[in-house]
Amino acid sequence: MDLERSPLALPFPAIPPIPGVTLRVARARYKEWDRCDLTYVELAEGTTVAGVFTRNVCCSSEVELGREQARFGKARALVVNAGNSNAFTGYRGREAVEQIMAQVAGHLGCAPSEVFVCSTGVIGVPLPKDKAREGIGAALEAPACSWKEAATTIGTTDTFAKGALAKAVVGGRTVTIAGIIKGSGMIAPDMATMLGYVFTDAAVEAHFLQFCLGKANESTFSCITVDSDTSTSDTVLAFATGKAGNAPLASFDDAGADAFAAALHDVCRQLALLVVRDGEGAQKLIEVRVTGAETDDSARRIGLAVANSPLVKTAIAGEDANWGRVVMAVGKAGEPADRDCLSIGFGGVWAAKQGLPLADYDEAPVAAHLRGREIDIEVDLGLGEGRAIVWTCDLTHGYIAINADYRS
Amino acid sequence: MDLERSPLALPFPAIPPIPGVTLRVARARYKEWDRCDLTYVELAEGTTVAGVFTRNVCCSSEVELGREQARFGKARALVVNAGNSNAFTGYRGREAVEQIMAQVAGHLGCAPSEVFVCSTGVIGVPLPKDKAREGIGAALEAPACSWKEAATTIGTTDTFAKGALAKAVVGGRTVTIAGIIKGSGMIAPDMATMLGYVFTDAAVEAHFLQFCLGKANESTFSCITVDSDTSTSDTVLAFATGKAGNAPLASFDDAGADAFAAALHDVCRQLALLVVRDGEGAQKLIEVRVTGAETDDSARRIGLAVANSPLVKTAIAGEDANWGRVVMAVGKAGEPADRDCLSIGFGGVWAAKQGLPLADYDEAPVAAHLRGREIDIEVDLGLGEGRAIVWTCDLTHGYIAINADYRS
C-alpha cells in the first residue's frame, strides 16, 4: 500500500556533516523492493556510545546484544536493516546479527562488540545471512551519503524522513548534536518499531552519555505513544565521536555539561515528536499536559492513560471537546486522583474545574482549537506538584485502514 | 445515529418470572427521545444483595453510594436511569441520587440504603431531579413488564437486549438465576458503561452472595475488554429474594452451594460475553486463551494485554494471522515471559512454538478460522500452570465511526 505523507510532517532539517561520522546506504533487498534498505554508519576511533532499549521481554537478538554492547561504551559502526525485524527468530536470528558484527569488525579491525546492529520490519523471519553479507559488502564500498538519505533508508512505512539538530557550547567549542529516527507507520504483518540514532562530535565519556540519554529518554521517548503497543525492537543509541576536541565531559561539574545535556534533550524531544507526527493515520498531534499530580512519574502515567485512551483519541479525531472521556481516562490510570479536585481543559480553556463543569464554559474557542492540527489537553489533578507532558496522535479511519484493511 | 444490530448478537432468552422480583419501566425523558429510560425493580422483603463496582477513581455518586449500601447486604429496590450517567456532577449529582432513594424508600417503607440507583449516559450533567421524580412516580404505577423490556430500557447505545439464565438445585429445590446487562455502544459524548443485574429466588446470605459474585467477577466481567477504557459507572449487582424457600446458603458447606455458585458464574459469563458481542463496531468475538503462565493472575494480565492491543485487534479485523503482534503484546504485558518458551496459535493450530515459527505451519486452516465470527487465540507461556481466558472484539472502522465521526 502507498501511504500518503502525514499532514503533520515537518521538513527535514539542514544537518551539517558531523566529524567522525560517515553515512553510507546500500540495497540488501531484504524485501522485494527497489530501494536502499541497509544503512551503515562508520564512527571514528574513540567514539563512545549509550543506549536505551525496549522493555518488551520478547525482544529481538539485536536488542539483547545491543544492550550488552552498550555497557562497554565503545562504538565503531552502526548497521540498520530495514524490511526484516529479525525478531522471534531464535538462534538463527542471533547468528545473522553475529555474522554482521564479525564482517564489519573484520573490515574495521575492531572488536565485534563495537559494531551495533538494529533491524526493523517483518517478524518471525530470520534475517537472510546471504543478503546481509552482500548488503554490508556493498555498503562498505558505497559513497558517503546525506543525513536525509540515511534517515530515509532506516524507514519502513514512515511517510517522511525524520531528523533533528541542536548545538551547544562545551568548553569554548561549539558541538553539534544531530539525530535521525524511524517510526511508526506499519504494513501488516510488519511491526512498527522506533529506531533512533543521535550523533555528536562532542567528547563525552560513555557513562555520562548514558546518564544524559537515560534522563532525556524519560521525558521524550518514554512520553510518546501512538497505539500503546511496544515494539520488540525499539532502540535509541547515542554516539559521541569526540572530534570537536573539547575536554571529555564526565559529569555535570564539567563546563558545558549542562548545555550538552540540554541540547541532547532537545534533539531527543524533536525526534520523539516526529514519530508521533507520523503515527499511523494521524491527523492531529495531541499534547497532554498534566499538572498537580502527586509525583512527576504519576503525572506521566496519567498522561499516558489519557494519550492511550481510544475514546479520547477518537473524540479528538472527531473534534469533540469530550472532557468526560478525559475524566474517565484519568480515573482508570491507577494513580492517585480525586474527582472533586480534578480540572480539565482544551487549548488553554478550562471545561471543568474541581470536579464540576464550569457554568460559564464557552465551547466556541475550544471548538476552534480542536479544528487545528495541534491539540492541547490540560489535566490538573489539584493534589501536588507532579507534572509531565505526553504526546500522541488521534485515532482515525487511517489507523484501521493501515492495520486491518491491507493483508500481508 | 442509528446503530445496526451487531452481527454477533444472540436472541434474548426465555427468562421466567422470578418470585420476589417485579420489573417496571417508565419514561423519565432524560433525553429528547421517545422510549422508556427508567427501570424500576421491586424486590421482596428479605432480599439480600452483593455488588462489584468500577475501580475508576473518578466514579459517579451512584457508585460511591452503591458500594456503601452493598455492605449492608439488604435491598428492596433498584432504579436504573438511562441517558444521563450523572458522573462528574459533584454535590448536585449526589442530591439527585439521594432524592430517588428517599422517594422509593417512602413508597416502600424501607430504609433509603435498601434502594440502589445506577445511571448511564451523558457525563457532566447533573441528573435532573424533576424528571427523576416524575419518572419514579410513573414507574411505581406502571404495570409489571417483561425481562426483555427491562433489558431494553437499561440500554443506551446497545444494539440488542441482553439477558442470561441458569438454574441450580439447592437443598432439593430448583432455583433460577437470571441476569440482564447493558453495554457497550456509545454516542459522543456518552460514555459506555456496563451495568449488570443478576436476580435469583434462591435464599443466599449477603456475605456468601458477595463472595460468589466477587469470585465470578474475576473470571467474567474482569476478563472482558472492548477498548481498554474503564467507565466511571460500571456496576454489577446480584439480588437474592429467598422466595425459592431453600435453607439460606451461607457457605460452601451448605448443600447446593457449589451448584448455586456455578450457575451464578454461568450467568455472569453469559452476560459478560454479550457485552463483548455488542462492542462498538465489533465484527468478531475474540477469545484469548492463555496457558503456562506463572500464575492465573499473570495469565489474565497477559490475556488482557493481547486483547487490548490495537495491533492484534486490527489484525483480527483484517483476518490476518499476525502472530508477531501477539508476541509483541505478550512481551509488553509486564509479566514473566520467556521468548524462547512462547507458543502462539489460532483456532487450535500452532503458528509458533517455543520461540520459533513452525517449519510446517499450514496457514490454510488458520485463514479459514479467521474468516469466521468467533476467533480463538492461544498463547502458551511454557513457564507454569497459570491460565486464563479473556474476551474482546476486533477493532474496525465501525469503532471509529461510532466514536469519532458523529458529534454530540
Describe the structure in brief.
The structure is a homodimer of 408-residue chains. Chain A is an alpha+beta fold.
Outline the secondary-structure elements:
The structure is a homodimer of 408-residue chains.
Chain A: E1 21-26, E2 38-43, E3 48-53, H1 61-72, E4 77-84, H2 90-108, E5 115-122, H3 129-141, H4 147-153, E6 162-170, E7 173-182, E8 195-200, H5 206-219, E9 235-240, H6 257-277, E10 285-293, H7 296-308, H8 310-317, H9 323-332, E11 343-346, E12 349-353, E13 356-357, H10 363-370, E14 374-380, E15 386-393, H11 397-405
Parallel strand pairs in A: 4-5, 8-9, 10-14
Antiparallel strand pairs in A: 1-2, 2-4, 3-9, 6-7, 7-8, 10-15, 11-12, 11-14, 12-13
Describe this structure in words.
Two copies of one chain form a homodimer. Chain A has 408 residues and is of the alpha+beta class. The first copy, chain A, has helices at 61-72, 90-108, 129-141, 147-153, 206-219, 257-277, 296-308, 310-317, 323-332, 363-370, 397-405; strands at residues 21-26, 38-43, 48-53, 77-84, 115-122, 162-170, 173-182, 195-200, 235-240, 285-293, 343-346, 349-353, 356-357, 374-380, 386-393. A six-stranded mixed β-sheet of chain A has the order 13-12-11-14-10-15. A five-stranded mixed β-sheet of chain A has the order 3-9-8-7-6, sandwiched between helices. A four-stranded mixed β-sheet of chain A has the order 1-2-4-5, with helices on both faces. The relative contact order of chain A is 0.14. The model of chain A is unreliable at 185-192 (pLDDT under 50). The interface between A and B is large, with 68 and 68 residues.
